[in-house]
Amino acid sequence: MKLFLFLKCGMLCLISTLILSCNQRNNIIQNSSEEVNYNVFERDSIVDHVMYSVNRLPINSEKRRVTLDSAIAEYPSIAYFQQQRAMPLYKQDKDELGKPFLEKAAKLDPQRYLDYKAFMECVFSQNYRDAISDFEKYLEMFGEGYVMDHTYYFYMGISYLQLNEFEKGKIYLDKSIAQIVAESGQDWVHHLDLMYLGIANLELNDYENAIKAFDEALVKYPSFGDVKFYKAICLFKLGNVEEANKLLEDAKEDVLAGNTINEDNVIYERYPYQVRRTWFGHP
User: Fold this and answer.
1) pLDDT digits (tens, 9 = 90+) for 8-62
2) Are residues 107 and 114 in contact, defined by beta-carbon separation less than 8 angstroms?
3) Of 54, 69, 73, 227, which residue has the fewest beta carbons closer than 10 angstroms?
4) Cα–Cα distance between 45 and 144 in angstroms, integer?
């Protein structure tokens, strides 16, 4: 009898231990997915495998969204899937739906996606203070850099212009140009840096320096209708009415011909201060 009780107690202890062990293992599996740190090779292999299927699907299709949601559920620590889930929503003007995915991507991999989030806040969502804050964080964490072909200072500059803080806008656009010159030389300064620097000076009523910046932009992009439009305003302000009227006609021809801001994302969003065709009486 005693032997039977001993064996029974031992068996119960063994079963309890096994159950506890299984529960602990399940908890580890359930709780570890957020904490998995893949090396670069592992991460890239997973991404390549998943995106081989995803990229075959229409970008705004339900099937693509479901496939990415499955990838996010299985690999929640891989930021790329979060960014890919967000991007089409922003391009459909569904920023509110895309933002949680983009925030998650930036949290998981700030070096790769915090500056991208800041760009999206600036150009797509027009949340300029959030954009400035994100760029400031990135600069503090990782230093100067570029996103979508422009410096972080460039986007901070146009964000301040949109907040009517024109002096700050000018400071950051000057910093953008200085960074490019220091790294690559004067020839690599972008015509948009010069356009927005000219606009900052225009808003500050410094018409002569505005014209100087606009002229430098026109050397790089001679048919840039937006720049001609704002230069014409400066000429009017300085009393050069005949020259201003002629330049305004040139600006009209160029803008209607499509010679405007030529960023890739302009098909989704208007850039700050971009001249509208309707300003010239055209749809």
Assistant:
1) 444 334 334 333 333 433 333 333 345 578 888 999 999 999 999 999 999 999 9
2) no
3) 73
4) 30
Report the distance separating Cα 192 and Cα 173, nearest Å: 10
**DSSP β-ladder status, 150-151 and 146-147:** antiparallel
Say how far apart CA 235 and CA 231 lie, in whole Å.
6
Q: Which helix (H) or strand (E) is 166 found in, with range? A: helix 166-184
Query: Rounded to 5 degrees, what angle do the CA atoms 232, 194, 183 make?
Result: 165
Has residue 283 been placed in a domain?
yes
Neighbours of 145 (CB within 10 A): 13
Q: Is residue 165 part of a domain?
A: no
Find the domain containing 221 and state its range: 190-283
User: For residue range 104-126, what is the model confidence (pLDDT) as tens digits?
Assistant: 999 999 999 999 999 999 999 99
The residue from 108, 134, 161 where one domain ends is: 108
Please name the helix (run of DSSP H) or strand (run of DSSP E) that holds residue 151, with its range, or none: strand 150-151
The answer as to whether 52 is a domain residue is yes
- Count the domains in the chain: 2
Predicted TM-score of the model (pTM): 0.85
Length, in residues, of the chain: 283
Q: What pLDDT is recorded for position 36?
A: 79
Place of tokens 């922003």: 90
In angstroms, the CA 67 to CA 81 distance is: 10
In whole angstroms, what is the distance from residue 238 CA to residue 66 CA? 59
The answer to whether position 234 is within a domain reads yes
